[in-house]
## 1
Amino acid sequence: MSLTSLLEETRNLLKNNYLADDRPWVIAFSGGKDSTLVLQLVYEMLLELADQAVKPVHIVCSDTRVEPPNIAEYIHSSLRQIEEHAKKCRFPLFVHIVQPTPDESFWFNVIGKGYPTPTSTFRWCTTKMKIKPSRRVIDQIVKEYGGVIILIGVRSAESSNRAKTIKAREYNSRGMHSHEDIPDALIMSPIAQWDTDSVWHYLFTNNPAPWGTDHKFMLNLYRQANGGECPVALDLNTQSCGNSRFGCWICTVVDEDRSMRGFIDSGATELTPLYNFRNRLKQEIRPNSAMRMNQRRDGSPAPGGKGPFTPEARQMILKELLHLEVETQQALIDDDEMIHIQRQWSQDFDTRGTLVLAMAQKYGRNIKKLKVSLMSVRPENEKKDEILLELAAEHEINEQWIDELMNLVVRKYPPSNLTSNKKALLRDVQMVIEHAVTADRVAEENDF
Ligand code: SF4
């Protein structure tokens, strides 16, 4: 089919479906060429419809918190331009950059819980870092409007598997099929029949995008990364972005991260330390049985002694990551992820709840905010101690006596051991109080 007929067919499909009902649209946008084409065709349609463009269009883009810095910068700046332009045009267009929550994040799972880094057979990352965050927004839209139409940039020409999947679907009369997991969601693939050359041709004969982004920058990224892209994953049938481009910089699913290698070979040498760290995690740390526990987190034996990372390995990975931040001057882990890591470590092995803060301080992180937040995740006993010390100060009681009393009820006579020792506890408490009263009187007499 010629590009002219392809274009006409796609434009008709979009326009007819947009005007056919009130269901809002969601465009799954990854910043790659295919989803950019879908977005551009929709945007051009909105411009043409002008006052008739009243139905909301949501752009959902996932940021895994471990995106390659150059890609993240490009996508965020494009989305900012789209948002600003749409606002000026008064389009009902909304941008959602979705991120995993701290406990869905890569670093919390690897460093906090000790999850072995993902592989093609243990690919926990896509669900946690992409599917769940996207689903939260889509579920919210479905809740608000009762249904949704999701536009994706898949194409038959991407691969023979992709062509088979597209062909095997059952389509309704409007060319859409149901989403497998989201009730009340229909999927439309408006560029399913476009070949790769037509995609590039359209983007470059219609450059810049209507919202102002120059597609040359994207082409350059593709050239550097040697082609391909990482699709927005809305379900587990979505092909792994591991083997293609624009995946997470830390992706351990692929054997060789060719896109990062391509960026570095094209001159982005600032990415070399990240590339090396990914390789170390995949090739040296993950396979090293000394860094893995013999048991799973639930206590059952781990096959081949390859359970989660040991506490020592987890501390080592965090140290190396913080060191990498200093080396690259890039923010690689957020405060909220570190807070969640500390919470997990406090449960698992760090009874004083101080290790993360100490490391953050050592590597020059701004720890003021972190410190306040970490106070709230310190072990229960420490928190209780702190409250008691505050009360002691308020009532002008010497901390020493509070310490001694706490010692009795927490350590010498813990609740589990109290029934038979109640009398002994009362006697010891009385002794502490008598000492305190005596010491107080002596201090008063001596005026110190
Ligand atoms: S790029 Fe790799 S690490 Fe990131 S979600 Fe995809 S498979 Fe997982």
## 2
Amino acid sequence: MNARNRALLTSVAAASVLTLGGLAWLARDLLATASTEGRNPSLLDLLEEVRQSPPSKGAPRLAPKPPSPLTWSSPIASSSASQVCSQVDPELRQRLWQEQQSLSSQIRRIPTDPSNYGERFRRDVYDNPIDPTPRVIVLHETVYGLDSAINTFITPHANDDDQVSYHTLIGLRGQIVQVVDPVKRAFGTGNSAFNGVWVVTNPKVGGSINNFALHLSLETPMDGENQASAHSGYTTAQYDAMALVLADWMQRFKIPATNITAHRHVDLGGDRSDPRSFDWNVLKLRLLVLEGSC
Ligand SMILES: [Zn+2]
């Protein structure tokens, strides 16, 4: 064993004692590859390796395709702008335009633990190049309160099964909380596909849309803290704040409104039904106002 490997073992052992006891086995396997890169792996490197195997040598292998596209078409595309715009209240228009001017000052950022998000990958596990640009937006709900969700995201999770995050949370009073910067990769969905597209960056999970998705989650109302199929729905303040964030993402990453979907429509595990009691027309109206179509 050379000096570099000894130093590496020491740092990995210290890290394991502190927070990642369960990863000690992994460090053994990673030492050989990490030492050839001329630097010691950080804890983050180790976690990234948990999520993505090192690229294979030789020719890229064919990535598997997702199952046939789920039968879903965007509710946002289902009626014409003129039909929807007739419902716009001038007060709503005024309010949204005003809030749009001060959006950046309304965003609260929290110290999300780095174990709960990562970088967007540029290659899949089969060594094929993949486009990390965000191009689909997935809506969720928290089921429990905002503080409970925030607490989950700022807590370190060594086990990758426990790592979870959204890019943004919207509280019942319209609070906007940025959990993960949109350029980073949030862990919002597991096995998932959008319109017949997924990428495999972690063979344990299978295909997922996380690498090219943005995730926004709505705080669930009190009467929805259960497994019932519906609840009383989201507040006007939530729809306003959500529309402001979505309009900003759509403009920044050139995402069409028809690429806004919901967890229940992209989940391939069959056990996600969020967001429940969501009114697509209320969102559509606001997006049309914010893009200047109403
Ligand atoms: Zn969800």
## 3
Amino acid sequence: MNTNNENISRSLNVVKPIYNITPFTLLDYPDKTACIFWFAGCNMRCLYCYNPDIVLGKGRISLHAGLHFLQKRQGLLDAVVLSGGECMAHKKISDFLQEIKNKGVLVKIDTNGSFPEKLNECIKNKLVDYVSLDFKATRNKFHTITKSHLFSEFETSLCSLIHAAIPFEVRTTIHADLLQIEDIQEMVNILQRYEYKGTYYLQYYRNNSNTLGNMRNSKNKYIDLLQIQTKIPIVFRNLY
Ligand code: SF4
């Protein structure tokens, strides 16, 4: 290991941004075996967020320990999913991704899209293989739902991904008290305007745990897809 690598390795040992590790999943990276690193902290406060402990809590695992975890599972895992919280908010994320890629493992990032420059740089440097981008709301409703003013940043991330040569997906969580069919139609229109060609994934909010905004369940208020005019495929992930 050269001095530069030693410095990077030491710096990855200092901070502890990972809240927890899911050691194995078949569900979170399309067609791959993966683990999930849950990053503590987020720059949004979505009312329906079901990870308040992760968003408001502190990490307990260093990036170095995360790499050690991967080392021990070399050959068993195809991929790593970085989720949270917002993994792109962490200062050392590029160095961490580089170290993961050095191990020959695929990387998927779950992101709210609020760090377009960092995301773009990671894509340009081939540090990311798949992105799952949250489309929280229309511009008008973005602050109400996320308690942030980051719609423009999201929009820039969306454009970058559309022009990048890596697979990605766009997904929206629907709570019927927050998003109505007119909003979904507007969001579909935005995706079409930017010429998004992939599938638009929708998922209903389920109130099975504590959320940041203590949201009630929104069941029985389903969106009638037939009312949406769309040229892009729309798939519901959790209808039942
Ligand atoms: S749902 Fe919102 S608050 Fe929760 S981790 Fe995602 S972006 Fe952050």
## 4
Amino acid sequence: MAQISSLSALDPSAYDIIIVGSGPAGCSLADRLSAKGVSCLIIETGLNAYNQDIQTAYTAMDTRGHFGDQHWAQHWIRAFGGTSMVWGGWCAPLDEQDFEAWPITRSDIRPYYDVAADILKLDRVINSYDAAYLPGFRFKPFRTVYGAMRFGEEYQSFLTAPGSVDVLLGVTVTALQPDAARNRVVGVGLHQQDGTARRVSLRDEQRLVLAAGGMGNAQLLLNPAPDSETGVGNETDQVGRFLMEHPHYINTAALVGRRRLMPPTPPANFGDHVQNILADRTTYAKTGKLSVAMELVERELNPRDRVERFLRDKYDGEFIAYNINIRSEMPASPDNRVTLAPSRDPSGLPLLKTMCMAGSDTVRPIFAVLEALGKTVMARDDGRVFIHNETLVSNPSGGGHTMGTTAMGSDPRSSVVDANCKVHRYTNLYVAGSSVFTSGGSANPTLTIIALAARLADHLTGAA
Ligand SMILES: Cc1cc2nc3c(=O)[nH]c(=O)nc-3n(C[C@H](O)[C@H](O)[C@H](O)COP(=O)(O)OP(=O)(O)OC[C@H]3O[C@@H](n4cnc5c(N)ncnc54)[C@H](O)[C@@H]3O)c2cc1C
């Protein structure tokens, strides 16, 4: 097999694992499982090529709060390869402190970051490079990639080469049927683009993994199970809560002064990157415990600025100036959430409604980190930090990073999946993707998504 021609040609009992969604999470999971000889089926709403009608009909959303009306819909691509069709390819691992609220530590995921770098064909040094900068700060660049990996292109072999991964395109998973005790998913509803629908049963040992993106995973678990008012996995009303982005405040400050403010140069095998500085552990603990990535973009002196001219003359030939772009962490708030809208997509799944505000608890720590940087720079007589207040209190843009909607935790009253990405109380239902992030740090999420998918593959095969 490889690509299955239609819903009627599907034999669902033939697979060990059924994966919903073919983005970086779904493809990486299938890749690692198939390498271990496990048979997988990927079910994907989209087609091999992007289709605007499918995109519009399946992602329409009622959006409230920050980030803009089309934000979440535009960042959930419905095609083979998922949102990697448009992603930028920037990569960095989360920090140890980013895992403080998670039921796993960075050491649990550390080996899988290297697997993720291998999958993305990046040097593993991106996971270990972390250099000193000024006292209280570190230099931790984001790897940037020109021509980022498109998972749909990279994994065309899933469609063409008979192996242990089969793919059903143009089919949406619409419903999860639990058993009477709500401990297992016993069946799933499927809908093909031409309107054909089918309900299939799961064998006892079969497992189902939702890898449908930050919105899609929540949508499937929010959708009330047949003959019920509650979605599978939403028994404690936690699905869809804790929606997070990485608020971007571009050109929101400036770092101006002596040439020795230049950050270090990473090793050559690190590759292309943006220059990012971060608070170290001590500063982080004092400034509100949110990760604030400060990208330094070198620029010319602003000749209209009196203080800059003064500093240029003072440091005589040793002058350097940077604009600072902020990419920040949002606190996980239960009130930032995804819920179901009254209207439905063509498969019959309820469409989504979002409410997400990046409030003062997001912005205050950014001010605090920038002020701490400014104090350090002044104390060393190295220059000044200027903060552009108006930019920092305006509507931020985001990175297209949809996180937190099926959060990981050990308590089912405040989370949806456990430390192994298994939905609480269900023995055969798992989630892959940034919807499981308990907190988001400030690093782009996809490297961590792939690392978690690789870890999940090992868990499902008994290797982790
Ligand atoms: C413009 C842009 C730039 C970005 N740049 C970066 C970057 O530089 N670095 C970074 O780390 N991240 C970046 N991202 C984010 C990155 O694209 C996502 O983190 C990543 O694609 C998520 O992978 P995923 O597999 O979890 O979900 P997705 O890639 O969204 O894939 C989910 C798939 O599931 C399918 N699906 C959903 N529901 C169903 C259903 N019910 N039945 C069947 N199939 C379903 C969808 O059609 C989709 O194909 C960017 C995103 C955007 C939009």
